[in-house]
Amino acid sequence: MTSDAPDVLLAPYRGALTGPLRRRLARALLGEALVSCTCGRGAARHALESVYAAVFSAPCGPAGAGFAEHLAAARYVVLFFLVDDGPAGGARALADRLRRGDESGEDEPGRQLRALLDGLRARGADRDRLVALLADFCSAVAEEAAADLAAEPLPPDRLLHLRARTIGVLPYAECLRLVQGLPPPDPGSADDRLVVTAVEAVYLANDLFSAAVEGRARPRPPSGNTVLALARAGEGPRAAAEGAVARYNELVRGLAAAQDRPFAVLLARVVDGNRAAYGDLAATRYPGAPLELLPRLDRVRPDDPPS
Question: H helices within the chain, ranges in order?
Fold first, then answer.
């Protein structure tokens, strides 16, 4: 593999890689993937995942952070896509390994997990809480995939419980917390409640913009999209989308009112950063996304410059 291979592979995605941070992150993440790739999926697939990770992680990272801090957290976003887009059996196996304290897996997610954890270990971070959150995320992805395979709709309360975990915000917020050296939120504290707010906001936005793709899935749409679930329950697509927009903006107002605390600022970056990514990925990950809804979704911190 030549030294300019990452640039060649990333060339088709210049439109999404706006700004030097996104381009540098994508190149670094792709370079790491290509060095140890044995998955057989091809370098082009790694390039696409690196683009996704860079586009999502650049605006979510700490404002004013150095490249090393951004890269340490961006490695999680690569792992997220490997698990989320991978087979359910792989997600379940990784969850089991994490709960056993085993980081020795040689599959693609296992190697990415080690890159993530080794990077955080080098920064002196305590990773135990992150490992537990990663295991929960992987288990939830596997459970949702099993429900899709069985073609059995999830009960509403179970759907929301799983969606809060499959969206992957909980481990990502933990990665960012570790990178920034912030204390963990105490259970039941104001910051802990804001985590729940941020998680719901992110999955609502994701489900709004992915509904166009997932709604066409055959033989049936996936069970994990909350907007599609509301539409199927009788609200209809338009009412479900309108309800999601209104709820999203309500959640954003709650986060905006708490921006005097560092942890709330971290969560605001995650919510606003995810919102920023959908338009840039409309041509690849979210074809047909209703981009006319994007201006209707409020930002927590509208004065923050884009990354």
Answer: 5-10, 20-35, 43-60, 67-84, 88-100, 108-122, 128-150, 156-166, 169-180, 190-214, 226-230, 237-256, 262-280
CB 30 within 8 A of CB 1: no
Q: Using the Cα atoms of residue 269, residue 54, residue 244 and residue 222 in order, give the sign of their dihedral.
A: negative
Backbone CA torsion sign across 280, 82, 287, 163: negative
Phi/psi region, residue 234 (left: phi>0; alpha: psi -120 to 50; beta: rest), is left
109 vs 90: CA distance, rounded Å: 8
Q: Say how far apart CA 138 and CA 164 lie, in whole Å.
A: 12
Q: What six digits make up the tokens of 23?
A: 């381009």
pLDDT at 302 exceeding the cut of 60: yes
Read off the pLDDT of residues 161-219 as tens digits, 9 standing for 90 and up. Answer: 999 999 999 999 999 999 999 999 999 999 999 999 999 999 999 999 998 888 776 66
How many CB atoms lie under 10 A from the CB of residue 71? 21
Q: What percent of the chain has pLDDT over 90?
A: 71
Domains and CATH numbers, the chain: 18-296 (1.10.600.10)
